[in-house]
Automatic annotation (TrEMBL):
Name used for this protein in its record: Aspartate aminotransferase family protein
Family: Belongs to the group II decarboxylase family.
Keyword Transcription in record: no
Keyword Ribonucleoprotein found: no
Species name: Candidatus Enterococcus ferrettii
């Protein structure tokens, strides 16, 4: 006889105690877990006929899977600008699953209103003006997708065309200009039918990843037609920032849609020490900011902001009558690519409510201080070379012999004390370290440095 779902419901309190025991053990041992883990599955049992029930499934997970998962949400995971879920965000995520709302519209649940409330809290956190509206999507790639889709629609309007209805064939080729675009911008251009080759990389300033403003203006003048400009607020290699104020001023003389990719750099607004890096952000037509980075909520979560919700509605409007509720506020199914939407706003609301502006100011300043400390140690080291000044929470460096970078990274990540990711900077192999986890402490920086230095000595 198949195991009964009703039986598990009746035993749910006991199941939760079993789960809480696993959760407590995880939190208590996260600092000892390998930061990265390349282990293979030690069991390969597939689908059974009758099932095991939730309790036995949890025991199986604990025995065969739990110890082999990486500690990527722990304090020494410095790859991919990955945050680790705060306690409040975890509670919010549990409740997201418990209540299991489809946050697509406003008629059947309070979830949509909570999402709007959370967006307002985030606008306050990032000092965005009231003209912006926003919504949650799955990550920075989809936030960039939503922003550039609106930019595509805006360009069509400049030619008197509705591209959402008629496609791209009726207008000249769309160009996307950026100094150091994230790889997702190229991916988005492909998904939108604009094409990867439409991405025009503009020269950057000497020894920087920030766009050269004179070169950008020259491009805009020579193009002499509407385009999309993607400005960067925190590049992934060196956390460099374009001059958003100066780029915003160019909109007075040239027709372009300004999209700001502030996936993690937007959090500089939380701190008086770093908010200057975002001067001019409110010139943006659309903005990307990630939540599963520095907000430290579980994957997958990001926000897109826009000053042109009417264009967003033109692009993503879903005409199915059973989905539309006809209220004054457009349903999220008409504003984002998804019709079925997880209640992503709830973990964000919980962590914002729990820790407030001061909590995130402290997190940003603390992580940035750790990055600065690591940068100083690298500068003073005989084994490493710092490739760019530490501006916020990222450190870009290489070995004195860059050719050994691949070997070094393989060994350092296998050792399990710290996880780092490779990159290429100024045409040479390099290493990225991104501090964005709420659990990282000064002792972790010491452990990270000891591991880096020990592996470098053995090369």
């Amino acid at each position: 006889m198949a195991h009964s779902m009703d039986t598990d419901k009746q035993q749910f309190a006991a199941l939760m105690q079993q789960f809480i025991g696993l959760e407590q053990d995880y939190f208590e041992t996260i600092n000892e877990k390998p930061v990265a883990n390349t282990a293979q599955l030690s069991a390969n049992e597939g689908l059974t006929e009758l099932g095991t029930g939730a309790s036995e499934a949890l025991e199986y997970f604990s025995e065969f899977f739990a110890e082999e998962l990486s500690g990527s949400n722990g304090p020494r995971y410095l790859g991919f600008v990955t945050g680790g879920a705060t306690p409040a965000a975890i509670i919010g995520d549990w409740l997201t699953s418990l209540y299991d709302q489809n946050a697509a519209n406003f008629s059947y649940s309070l979830a949509g209103q909570i999402e709007l409330l959370t967006i307002e809290m985030l606008k306050d956190l990032f000092s965005l003006k009231q003209a912006y509206t926003g919504s949650f999507v799955s990550g920075a790639t989809m936030a960039n997708f939503v922003g550039l889709a609106q930019g595509r629609q805006w360009i069509g309007q400049q030619y008197g065309q509705d591209l959402a209805e008629n496609g791209l064939f009726s207008i000249p080729e769309i160009k996307i200009a950026s100094g150091t675009p994230h790889s997702s911008i190229s991916k988005v251009a492909a998904m939108l039918g604009i094409g990867r080759n439409a991405l025009q990389q503009i020269p950057v300033k000497d020894d920087r990843e920030a766009v050269d403003l004179a070169a950008l203006e020259t491009f805009l003048k020579q193009l002499d037609r509407p385009c999309i400009v993607v400005a960067n607020a925190g590049t992934v290699n060196t956390v460099d920032f374009d001059d958003l104020e100066a780029i915003g001023q160019l909109k007075k003389n040239y027709p372009f849609w300004l999209h700001v990719d502030a996936a993690f750099g937007g959090f500089a607004a939380c701190s008086p020490k770093f908010e200057r890096l975002l001067t001019g952000l409110n010139h943006a037509d659309s903005i990307t900011i990630d939540a599963h980075k520095w907000l430290n909520v579980p994957y997958d979560s990001a926000m897109q902001f826009t000053q042109h919700q009417e264009l967003q509605l033109e692009v993503f409007n879903n005409h199915a009558s059973y989905l539309n509720t006809g209220g004054a506020q457009p349903d999220f199914s008409n504003l984002t690519p998804e019709n079925s939407r997880r209640f992503r706003a709830l973990p964000a609301w919980f962590t914002l409510k729990a820790y407030g502006k001061a909590g995130y100011r402290q997190l940003v300043e603390q992580n940035s201080a750790f990055a600065l400390e690591l940068g100083k140690r690298i500068t003073d080291s005989p084994f490493f070379e710092l490739l760019s000044p530490v501006r916020l929470n990222g450190v870009c460096f290489t070995l004195k012999d860059p050719a050994k970078t691949t070997e070094f990274l393989k060994k350092i990540n296998q050792a399990g004390q710290v996880f780092l990711t490779p990159t290429t900077y100024k045409n040479q192999p390099a290493i990225r370290a991104s501090f964005s986890n709420w659990q990282t402490k000064p002792a972790d920086v010491a452990i990270i440095w000891h591991s880096l230095e020990a592996e470098a000595q053995q090369l």
